[in-house]
Amino acid sequence: MGFFKNFKIFSNDLAIDLGTANTVIYQGGDIALNEPSVVAFDNTTDRIIAIGRDALEMVGKTHNDILTMKPMKDGVIADPRVAEGMLRAYIGKVSGNWARRIIVCVPSGITEAEKRIVRDSCEHAGAKEVHLIAEPMAGAIGIGIDVLKPNGNMIIDIGGGTTEIAVIALGGIVRDQSIKIAGNILTESILQYLRNEHNLVIGERVSEAIKHKAGSACPLDEELDVQVKGLDLLTGLPTMKTVSSIEIRENALYPPLKQIMTSVINLLVDTPPELAADIYDRGIWLSGGGALLKGLDKRIEKETQLKVHIPDEPLLAVARGTGVVLDNLNQYRTVLLKHIPYL
Is residue 202 part of a domain? Predict the structure, then answer.
């Protein structure tokens, strides 16, 4: 009995949140891997030399023979060959280079061609059986929502490449919108603002750090100044300038956040009345790394007049939800995306 009780700990079944910013793998009841979706590639040998955190450390610091790449773009695979190599390495880390069954979460707006690329990449990386699930459905399950009941639930999953907004009931997505305005765009907006308004050239990693430290969607209880190091656009020399959380919020982050809010409002307007009544009672759930932006829940509450909830670990909600489906496949088989036919 003890052997069978603990069998899934050694299972080669995997649930994968293959995100634009991070790849998270669930195995045997818990998170087995959480690494950046970054690959370092040696042009001279045509081989991958680093992945994950090791590759992230190289971003912006490489010479001509080494290229750092993000094989995911807007939540889907942009470079199948590099993505396959990254997947193969990550699968090897947690399950010894093969997987009996893999469930991968993907954006709700994914095309049939993009589904096929995800499936083929997973199979080439060692999977024997591949299933797909929409990110907002996985996020809702990971938060603890019973998606199979006839209750309307709204979730906003803000990842690195896409923001997934969905109304879910009876194990299906009733209304959804997938937009390519998410964490990476927020980071890029800060980078471009500092270049245009302060003549300061910074890298993606510095911009990301500014977003985490000084970025916000609502006024902070205590606004702060941050010192930013980069290159002066006029002189080309290293320099340091001071920027405030107020200007980051109002000038850099306001435009993309406004686009997200417009999409949220539009989806609420399009929601059937009975489900809208459920959402009024239950509120809106946030998941994904974007949920960690300071004051985002307050901003959405102000503009929708609805309560907004953030789970304890929003960044892991999608992976955990995909894992719940993996561990209870017969119960949740109806929430999976339809099988993709082979060409």
Answer: yes
Answer whether residue 143 is part of any domain.
no
User: pTM for this structure?
Assistant: 0.91
Backbone Cα Rg of the chain: 21
| Residue 343, domain member (yes or no) | no
Residue 343 pLDDT? 60
**Is 92 part of any domain?**
yes
Q: How many domains does the chain have?
A: 3
Q: Are residues 170 and 187 in the same domain?
A: no
CA 179 distance to own-chain centroid? 12
- Regions of the chain with pLDDT less than 50: 1-10
Q: 72-98, pLDDT tens digit by residue?
A: 998 889 999 899 999 889 988 888 766
Q: Are the C-beta atoms of residues 139 and 160 closer than 8 Å to each other?
A: no
C-alpha of 316 from chain center: 9
Q: What range defines the domain where residue 241 resides? A: 183-252
Of 64, 80, 38, the residue nearest 204 (C-alpha): 38
C-beta of residue 137 within 8 angstroms of C-beta of residue 168: yes
pLDDT at residue number 225: 96
